[in-house]
Specification:
The protein is mainly alpha-helical. It has helices at about 10-20, 25-40, 40-55, 80-85, 90-100, 115-120, 150-165, 180-195, 255-270, 275-280, 295-310, 315-320, 320-325, 330-360, 365-375, 390-395, 400-405, 410-425, 430-445, 450-460, 465-470, 485-505, 520-550, 580-600, 605-620, 640-645, 670-700, 700-710, 715-720, 735-750, 755-780, and strands spanning about 105-110, 135, 145-150, 205, 210, 630, 635-640. The longest helix is centred in the last third of the chain and has 34 residues, at about 520-550. This is Sphingomyelin phosphodiesterase 4.
Length: about 775
């Protein structure tokens, strides 16, 4: 592609656009590698926005780009894309090459997350430093504002936005897989720019002026200590008074890490503000943003990596007090690790999860949201220590995590309460839903965790006057002549202040806090336990019914002794209600009950009595009752109570096929050609000999009973509707019957019986079996 004589930027861009439709991706990437190496930044500047859009797609979703979210490892283009976009690859080299020249690229404010866009349009400076000093003020007014981003910011914005851009996928394809090129690139970028070991690799490109410089270094007014701390007294700054920044040499080391994280958090999580969330509690308000399962899976990847990144902080830095950091030399990356979760992620993730918990459908896809939450509240799982899975299940949560629990109290208590509200409305007979309840109960039942949460709640409930007597942080330690008692009191006061600040920042000053271990929530837990017990009984009843039906249609049914009613296989049972799934349901719910008792210190005797009483009352009445309904013009109409009874598995309609059994849909275990052929033959025989069959079955002697065994209708329902006996040959169309006949004929051939002899023996055997069933059928049914 690259000619000896460098082309003008306009011709270069035109040729690249033309190659898009004529060359395969591999050749296009090879050409781009040469262009990036050979052309100066001035020419590359003109093609950069087009190239970014070509790779990630347009912000409005019209241009699909390379479809990174649908590109999987089995694709031929998968490795080509990863090689081109990796952190040390050609695309990033282009970014650094342009970064050295301080080029800017515009992004319309309309594509920013809702709360950020609202702030800017109201003339208020957003709290995220990422958007400071980047606003361009056109003459036409605020509504057409643009952000001027440097090349690295522009690249990461488009990469992050690619995840939430609405795209129309081909039918049957969805971007929710964790082996897609996009998911792998997110993981790669996180590991590269937020390394758990070592430091961020330097830029692979340097120009004549030296290494690439940080474009927007933090000022002292926009430091780690300030970002993400939402104090009620903070003043809002007008966007026309954006703070000026001075280059901070210490920030040079991690500006790319900061930019990447802030861009991911803002684009993926910052779609809800506290005011917006409070409005969303009204059912009339339409949800402004609905994340997909793929989106949530990527957020979980971010959460897990940030925990691992934060936990890689050196012990001496972790134990140092905030005041010590101002006097002790700490690398910017280590300082970044110390504050990354609390200051950059906590509030936005909390509102994001709140929205998902409240608006996600009541189905198994909620598992992605649930695991994201459980990953965040268990940072001790991502310390890098190798533990035995068996020991890990019962491992006590170390005391050092008490501070994390206190600073994230609402993540444990409020979200647990919201989960309870979901769980009581979920079908817990479904094994996937039962698993989610078990997972939450198992996590909160970890030794020492419930005690930490209770202590955090006690600190929050301390009287307000505790805060009024707080003293400055610069106090003397006992070794310096201070009082040990006053030192201890100050520590408690700091803890109280920390918990209260956290709650008020996330829920507002006027929040009504409900204790996780209070009386009200204990009642909600007891309600959940009742629903779990009901679901256990329902699962057991369905499982027992399935076992009986399977036993009745097992080996003896091959010989015609089982139920021949085709209705038994037409009862609307789903795959989730198979025997194996129901066993898992019972196991998950049993263990969930044990864990809930452990968390809330419930009396095992009372719990057992509650479950036994519930089981007996359900067996006595509910199992034979229809769901609660009212009679409408066109039949029964479910009430709200009836819907809850069906969802919880307490009651259900007895759905059975009530038409002519001979005209039921052809099953997967039947030969369609034989079904139609045998139906015509049996219809002819029934029409011709119907009178004789009726006369035979009307007799009260042994021959009449034998005739009714072979010729009576196939079910009691059809017997009530049509008392005419008839011959049914449809069982002969079953592959099971065909296989059995084939085995008999092969066995006859081995024993030197001809086809005619084998046929007579089969007919004779069938007749003798009918005699036995006629003579002893009633006794066999009783047993």
């Amino acid at each position: 592609m690259a000619a000896p004589t460098l082309q003008q930027p306009s011709f270069l861009l035109a040729n690249l656009k033309a190659d898009t439709s004529t060359k395969p991706l591999l050749h296009r990437c090879q050409d781009l590698v040469k262009i990036i190496d050979d052309y100066p930044a001035k020419e590359l500047h003109a093609i950069f926005p087009w190239l970014v859009e070509t790779v990630f797609g347009s912000l409005d979703g019209i241009i699909a780009g390379w479809n990174l979210r649908l590109l999987h490892s089995r694709s031929n283009e998968y490795n080509i894309v990863l090689e081109f976009l990796k952190p040390s690859g050609p695309m990033m080299k282009l970014v650094y090459k342009l970064q050295a020249e301080e080029y800017k690229y515009e992004i319309p404010v309309n594509y920013l997350p809702g709360p950020v866009k609202a702030c800017i349009q109201e003339g208020v400076l957003p709290d995220c430093p990422l958007f400071h000093n980047k606003l361009q003020f056109p003459l036409s007014g605020l509504l057409t504002l643009n952000l001027a981003l440097n090349p690295f910011e522009f690249f990461m914005f488009n990469f992050a936005y690619c995840l939430i851009t609405p795209k129309s996928y081909p039918q049957g394809q969805q971007g929710s897989s964790t082996d897609s090129a996009y998911f792998v690139l997110v993981d790669t970028y996180l590991k590269y720019f937020l390394p758990s070991e070592g430091s961020v690799p330097p830029s692979p490109f340097s120009d004549s002026r030296g290494s690439v410089t940080a474009p927007s270094p933090r000022s002292s007014s926009v430091s780690f200590a300030g970002y993400g701390v939402h104090s009620p007294s903070l003043l809002k700054h007008h966007i026309f008074h954006q703070p000026s920044v001075n280059a901070d040499p210490a920030a040079q080391e991690i500006w790319r890490s900061e930019t990447l994280l802030q861009m991911f958090v803002e684009i993926w999580l910052h779609h809800y503000s506290l005011e917006m969330y409070q409005k969303l509690q009204s059912p009339q308000v339409k949800e402004p943003f609905s994340p997909t399962e793929e989106h949530v899976l990527v957020v979980r990847l971010l959460v897990k990596h940030l925990h691992a990144f934060s936990n890689s902080l050196k012990p001496e830095q972790l134990s140092s007090s905030p005041s010590a950091h101002s006097h002790t030399h700490t690398s910017p990356l280590e300082e970044f690790k110390r504050v990354v979760v609390q200051r950059f992620v906590q509030q936005k993730l909390y509102l994001f999860l709140q929205n998902c918990f409240g608006h996600w459908p009541l189905d198994a896809s909620f598992r992605a949201v649930l695991e994201t939450w459980l990953s965040y509240i268990q940072p001790w799982r991502y310390t890098g220590e190798k533990t035995n899975p068996q020991q890990d299940q019962n491992r006590t949560v170390p005391d050092k995590w008490e501070l994390f629990v206190q600073e994230n109290l609402l993540m444990y208590t409020k979200l647990f309460q919201v989960f309870l509200n979901r769980a009581v409305r979920t079908d817990l007979v479904n094994a996937k839903n039962a698993l989610m309840v078990f997972r939450v109960a198992k996590v909160f039942a970890q030794p020492n965790l419930a005690e930490m949460i209770q202590k955090g709640e006690q600190l929050f409930l301390e009287p307000e006057h505790v805060l009024h007597h707080r003293q400055p942080r610069g106090y003397l330690t006992p070794s310096q002549g201070g009082s040990y008692v006053s030192s201890k009191q100050r520590v408690v006061t700091d803890m109280v202040f920390r918990v209260k600040s956290h709650v008020y920042a996330l829920e507002g000053q006027d929040c009504q806090y409900k204790q996780m271990f209070g009386t009200e929530l204990r009642g909600a837990v007891m309600k959940l336990i009742q629903i779990i017990a009901q679901a256990r009984q329902t699962a057991k009843r369905i499982s027992d019914h399935s076992s009986v039906a399977t036993a009745n249609n097992s080996f003896m049914s091959w010989f015609g002794m089982g139920s021949s009613d085709l209705n038994n296989t037409f009862n609307g049972a789903e795959a989730e209600e198979s025997g194996e799934c129901l066993k898992k349901t019972h196991e998950f719910l049993d263990r969930a009950l044990e864990n809930l008792c452990q968390i809330f210190k419930l009396n095992q005797g009372q719990l057992t009595q509650l479950i036994s009483n519930l089981g007996s009352s359900q067996d006595d009445g509910n199992c034979k009752q229809l769901p609660d309904c009212i009679q409408g013009e066109n039949g029964l109409i479910l009430t709200d109570l009836g819907r809850k009874q069906i969802i919880s598995g307490l009651r259900r309609f007895d759905i059975r096929y009530q038409g002519d059994p001979e005209l039921q849909p052809i099953r997967s275990y039947e030969n369609a050609l034989l079904v139609r052929l045998l139906y015509r033959i049996s219809s002819l025989l029934n029409d011709r000999f119907g009178g004789h069959m009726n006369a035979l079955c009307s007799r009260q002697d042994f021959l009449g009973r034998l005739g009714r065994h072979y010729l009576s209708p196939l079910s009691r329902r059809t017997l009530e509707r049509n008392r005419q006996p008839r011959l049914s040959l449809r069982p002969l169309a079953s592959y099971r019957t065909i296989l059995l006949l084939l085995i008999f004929y092969v066995l006859g051939a081995v024993l030197s019986f001809g086809p005619v002899s084998s046929t007579l023996l089969i007919l004779g055997g069938g007749f003798l079996l009918g005699l036995v069933m006629t003579l002893f059928g009633d006794k066999l049914k009783k047993h």
